[in-house]
Every structure is written in structure tokens, then in C-alpha cells.
What does this fold into?
Amino acid sequence: MLAAERRDHLLDLLAREGKVVAKDVAAALGISEDSVRRDLRDLAAEGRCQRVYGGALPVSPAVVDYRARQTVAPDGKRKVAAVAAGLVRPGGAVILDGGTTALAVAQALPQDLDCTVITHSPTIAAALLDHPAAEIFLLGGRIFKHSAVACGAAAVEAAQNVSADLCLLGVTGVHPEAGLTTGDAEEAAMKRALAARAADTYVLASSEKIGTASRFRVLPWEEITGLITDAPQNDPVIEELRARDIEILPTD
It folds into this structure.
């Protein structure tokens, strides 16, 4: 089998099974594990898979820059945002993560809702300026332009001095084995700091993120309250998560 054919085979496996185990592929094709790993390295360099120990997982399309992400699955994000916005209670305090799905949540909040929104995203804060009853608390720090959010030591320290009823958290990958992931280490640390300051944490995950992975883990499954997604309820990943007693809030 030619290298191009092997790589097509690996991509097909990723699409069908949600992962590639190098030793299993090597045994099935009668080639060395080194050949499979080399192919996976090449695919990862092209941004077509996320390498993990022993193989690879599908790469998340949500690792592109902020402007490009605005055109990825906008309908799914709006559906997720509508459910998430319904969790914000009058008089409550919500920590709202950055990103395009979180922006959709801000836009979905009733304009007359009396609440406190804590965020590290200038974009989110600006979107809520026309919500007269909403108190906006902006956490500062170094701006990570890829996601238009504040990250780093100053932002994490600021997060440690707030608390809320609810945290609505964005991630770029949702995978049963890799967990909840994102593409930047400092952004992952900031997300952990935010989630730690809320009584309940729900993850915002439009369907294109389900079954994919990025490089840095955000949280283990046991530290979230639930997952909000527009993915089909019979999706194998969703079924596996439900079997683990993870609360799934569907959009339909």
C-alpha cells in the first residue's frame, strides 16, 4: 500500500471509528508501527488529526482563529446558546467564557434580564452593553487574540476572586478518551480557573466539536455538571457520555 493510500485509510478510520490505534493499524496492514506513526505525524502537520499516545484522534475544526470560527456551524452554536441562556436565572451570576458560542449566548440573553455576567472576553462584555439590567464584570489580563480573551497569570488571579452560580464554558474538543480540550495551554488554565469559581459548570459544545480533540485538556468529566450540544442523541460519543452518567442537555 502506497503512503497516500495509507493516509487515506487512516483518515477513513478516524471518520468511522473516532480514533486510530497505531499498533492495530500496523497489524491489520502488515506494516511497522513506525510507518503508521510517520503517516500520523504527516497528517498532524497538515492539521488533519490530533496525535495522542498510541495513535491519533480527529482534530477539532474549532482551533482556527476567532474570525474564521465565526463561520463554523453558526446554526448549531445558536441552538446551543439558546439552551445555555435559559440556564441563567434572574438575579443570578454567570461566568461566561469567551469564544463564538459564548458570544451567541450573550446575544441570546433576554435584553431585560437582571443578572451579573463575569467574563474575561472584551467581545462578550461589549455585546452586553445594550442589556441595561445586566451587571458586567470584566476580568483583565493579557489578551489571547486567537480567542479574543484575557489569559495568563493576571487573568487567573482575577478569576480566583469572583464566584458565580453558573459557568458556561467553551471548549474546542469533546472526546470520551481525550476529555474536554482546547488548543492553548494558558487558555486551558484560564478555563479551569473560571470553572472552579462556579457552583455548576456546563460545557458549550456544538456538534462539530463532538468526537474531536485538541492538544490541552481543560477539565476531567467529573468536574462538569453537564454538556449542552446540538449533536444527535444517538451519536456514539453522546451515547457513551450518557452511559457515564454525564448530563446531556439537547437543543431539540
